[in-house]
């Protein structure tokens, strides 16, 4: 069953993805400014180019040839020099490299190819979780990885290859859905640590593992470690934002709730990258916290760590944890194991810190080793003739197989919350599509995306120009109204009236919407919020801005109330990242309700197929939907989720985590009551020494995917519901750091 979270990869989907590029020709240029050790270029005689040497020896040889004064620039994410030569080592034949190619649900830094192929824009993070399908998650990540490699080979990023954009994908976002107001829920996924961990594992394996096991396809960078779920906005009146906030969290909750997704991604997925966040945890800026140093040992992490955009500077400018940028740089490098600074603090102050004795060149060389080793593991210092990843090109971008997968993912992510016999609709009826999202294109796609549509040829006198592609163009994205109109067929009529904007009235909008609704057999309402600056800030979610309110903007609620009062069968679909309160639509005899999140490029087609019953692949809620007044009693600053937050800690839910209906009817019954005896082994101190694993899988039970693995720590007496040794890892980390 799909919702059982079965094997991590679908062989059929994987073969479709891999087969798409087998006939792709090798790039016409060998190095394209992104490959080192090019044969015949005069630099391949260096020992670090000798593939017969152990990898570590090759990396150490390269480091030994780099002048100390150059090293801070190599530990600066995008390089301080704003030119093609940023981070390049021309005397060694080592090209520029750019850390920070974002991958959230697409190859975000990608442009379009010259033949008009753009990166595949999949559904948003919550949509991935709502599928409860690791096969689809990993398959989507595999497409993003292959397309990123192909764009890299072509030099076809949004900077047109001028800055050597790299193969380290900054994503996915593994932060837990602690508070529905958080502005970045569109990037995140779920409130459940286990499910988020499985998403992280799928993302990691899909991005990093391809057909050539010798090399990493694209390096994942799990972000933002850790407890990063406050941006600013809802908490701004208290003087806090993501750059100066310190989350106070117990050891137990760090182990049980905040760490498991990162731990799973590293231990099970073998993630090669982690991003440390702006905030502090228990008074220590995360990028300066020795926790990552301990995690390298406890979790076997052997990759690199980058800061979020100059979070190192925040440690002294905003958190006031240290007195200078030089000290912040050295503590981040030495204690926080932060190898890359996504800012200029390392570049400007790291050597100053070495001179002051805060850290040493050995610390700098360790960070260089972690970062350069990854570039070697990506195959950027080896001959490319027998590397399949270098053969990827235009034909591997925007393939038909990727589009098919995109539709499947969108179908599996839509959640049917209520349906009093309205769905599926029959084609050939009189339909009125209403609401600010009824004809949406841009808002179907989560904001962190690559270029979606190629520039129109007519805009350039018939000459297609890749560099003219604009990430703000969405003309090629089918809207819900268009998809519903087509699916309703020629024998039906489908009209569209906007009715209102996202948070503002339109002149005559309500009257026009009501007039269209009265003539219709069925009304379809597209409501919700947005990550783009098109509505009242109290309702807007985006990076650096949390919502104040979790209900619909009043003007949308008013429109919905008018339409529902007509008594016509009404289908409401919602576009949003974080939850939107829906209590006013529940238990209405004439309202079917669909949560669509930001469903991606194929979202409109998925909505139409699901509404008309052509498809029946519904998902499950990845987080709790609270009552609209929840924010009045819960502070945005409170990180103690045991205060009745999420399904794990007794949340009062309007729609619970894991809930979702189907167009099918199910019945569950036991012929006889099942029984089981579970033996336990106890130590002399009474602690449970043996892990008991219980796995339950029942068709059509919304939460049947859960696997509970309980083990009690003899010191705390607290259960951990993550993997069997998670509590022991957590205890080891804290003993290492603080005992």
Automatic annotation (TrEMBL):
The keyword Calcium does not apply. It comes from the Eukaryota. The keyword Hydrolase applies. Residues 119-368 form the Glycoside hydrolase family 3 N-terminal domain. Residues 415-662 form the Glycoside hydrolase family 3 C-terminal domain. Keywords: Glycosidase, Hydrolase, Signal. Pfam families: Glyco_hydro_3, Glyco_hydro_3_C. Residues 1-25 form the signal peptide. InterPro entries: BXL (IPR044993), GH (IPR017853), Glyco_hydro_3_C (IPR002772), Glyco_hydro_3_C_sf (IPR036881), Glyco_hydro_3_N (IPR001764), Glyco_hydro_3_N_sf (IPR036962). This is Fibronectin type III-like domain-containing protein. It comes from Durusdinium trenchii.
């Amino acid at each position: 069953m799909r919702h059982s979270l079965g094997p991590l990869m679908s062989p059929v989907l994987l073969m479709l993805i891999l087969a798409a590029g087998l006939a792709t020709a090798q790039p016409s240029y060998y190095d394209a400014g992104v490959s080192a050790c090019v044969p015949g270029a005069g630099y391949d005689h260096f020992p670090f180019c000798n593939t017969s040497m152990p990898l570590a020896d090759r990396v150490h040889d390269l480091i030994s040839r780099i002048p100390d004064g150059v090293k801070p620039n190599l530990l600066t994410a995008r390089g301080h020099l704003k030119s093609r030569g940023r981070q390049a080592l021309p005397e060694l034949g080592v090209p520029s490299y750019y850390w920070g190619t974002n991958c959230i649900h697409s190859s975000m830094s990608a442009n379009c190819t010259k033949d008009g192929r753009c990166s595949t824009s999949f559904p948003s993070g919550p949509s991935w979780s709502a599928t409860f399908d690791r096969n689809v998650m990993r398959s989507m990540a595999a497409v993003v990885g292959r397309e990123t490699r192909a764009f890299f080979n072509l030099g076809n990023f949004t900077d047109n290859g001028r800055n050597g954009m790299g193969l380290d994908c900054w994503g996915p976002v593994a932060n837990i859905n602690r508070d529905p107001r958080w502005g970045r829920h569109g990037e995140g996924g779920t409130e459940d640590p286990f499910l988020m961990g499985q998403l992280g594992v799928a993302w990691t394996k899909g991005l990093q593992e391809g057909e050539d096991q010798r090399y990493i396809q694209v390096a994942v960078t799990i972000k933002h470690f850790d407890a990063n779920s406050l941006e600013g906005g809802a908490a701004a009146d208290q003087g806090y934002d993501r750059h100066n906030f310190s989350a106070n969290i117990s050891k137990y909750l760090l182990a049980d709730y905040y760490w498991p997704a990162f731990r799973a991604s590293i231990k099970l997925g073998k993630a090669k990258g982690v991003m440390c966040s702006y905030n502090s945890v228990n008074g220590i800026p995360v990028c300066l916290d020795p926790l990552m140093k301990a995690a390298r040992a406890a979790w076997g992490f052997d990759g690199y760590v980058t800061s979020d955009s100059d979070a190192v500077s925040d440690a002294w400018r905003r958190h006031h944890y240290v007195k200078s940028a030089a000290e912040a740089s050295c503590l981040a490098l030495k204690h926080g194991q932060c190898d890359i600074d996504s800012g200029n603090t390392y570049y400007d102050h790291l050597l100053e810190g070495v001179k002051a004795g805060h850290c040493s060149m050995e610390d700098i060389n360790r960070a260089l080793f972690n970062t350069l080793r990854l570039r070697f593991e990506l195959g950027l210092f080896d001959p490319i003739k027998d590397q399949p990843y270098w053969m990827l090109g235009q034909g591997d971008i925007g393939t038909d197989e990727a589009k098919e997968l995109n539709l499947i993912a969108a179908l599996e992510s839509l959640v049917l919350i209520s349906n009093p016999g309205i769905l599926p609709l029959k084609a050939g009826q009189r339909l009125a599509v209403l609401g600010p999202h009824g004809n949406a294109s841009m808002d179907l796609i989560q904001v962190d995306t690559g270029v979606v549509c190629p520039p129109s040829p007519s805009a350039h006198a018939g000459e297609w120009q890749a560099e003219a592609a604009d990430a703000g163009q969405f003309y090629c994205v089918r809207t819900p109204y268009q998809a519903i109109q087509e699916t309703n067929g020629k024998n039906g009529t489908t009209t569209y009236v906007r009715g209102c904007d996202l948070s503002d009235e339109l002149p005559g909008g309500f009257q026009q919407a009501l007039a269209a609704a009265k003539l219709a057999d069925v009304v379809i309402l597209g409501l919700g919020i947005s990550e783009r600056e098109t509505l009242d800030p109290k309702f807007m979610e985006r990076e650096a801005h949390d919502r104040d309110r979790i209900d619909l903007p009043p003007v949308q609620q008013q429109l919905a109330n008018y339409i529902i009062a007509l008594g016509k069968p009404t289908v409401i679909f919602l576009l949003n990242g974080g939850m939107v309160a829906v209590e006013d639509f529940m238990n209405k005899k004439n309202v079917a309700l669909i949560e669509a999140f930001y469903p991606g490029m194929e979202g409109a087609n998925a909505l139409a197929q699901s509404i008309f019953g052509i498809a029946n692949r519904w998902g499950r809620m990845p987080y709790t939907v609270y009552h609209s007044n929840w924010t009045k009693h819960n502070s945005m600053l409170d990180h103690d989720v045991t205060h009745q937050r999420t399904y794990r800690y007794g949340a009062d839910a309007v729609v619970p985590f894991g809930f979702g209906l189907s167009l099918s009817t199910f019945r569950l019954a036991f012929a006889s009551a099942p029984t089981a005896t579970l033996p336990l082994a106890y130590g002399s101190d009474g602690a449970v020494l043996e892990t008991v694993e219980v796995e339950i899988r029942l068709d059509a039970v919304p939460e049947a995917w859960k696997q509970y693995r309980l083990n009690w720590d003899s010191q705390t007496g607290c259960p951990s519901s993550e993997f069997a040794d998670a509590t022991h890892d957590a205890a080891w980390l804290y003993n290492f750091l603080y005992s």
